[in-house]
């Protein structure tokens, strides 16, 4: 899966599941504040990621994710890792 496809899929579910404004989703924007995420939202996000990309997410993985670009990079790395197996 290419990064462009990952970004498209990710942005689509962020808009659908978290009611994000598509114009607010920018690589440099802060993920938590832009989406107004609380701890339950992170659990929902884990479920959506696992359903869309087919890998398990550890909650501690989100500690290093600050921006949307960090999020895209994380998903891309995990998808590529999964594809190698």
**DSSP strand tally:** 0
Low-confidence stretches: none
Order of helices and strands: HHHH
Molecular shape: globular
Assigned CATH class: Mainly Alpha
Distance between the termini: 14 Å
Q: Percent helix among the residues?
A: 55-70%
Mean pLDDT: 92
CATH level 3 topology: Non-ribosomal Peptide Synthetase Peptidyl Carrier Protein, Chain A
Describe this structure in words.
This protein is mainly α. It has one domain: Non-ribosomal Peptide Synthetase Peptidyl Carrier Protein, Chain A (Orthogonal Bundle), CATH 1.10.1200. Helices cover 62% and strands 0% of the residues. It contains four helices and no strands. The radius of gyration is 12 Å and the shape is globular. It is found in: Cytoplasm. Carrier of the growing fatty acid chain in fatty acid biosynthesis. It holds the Pfam family PP-binding.
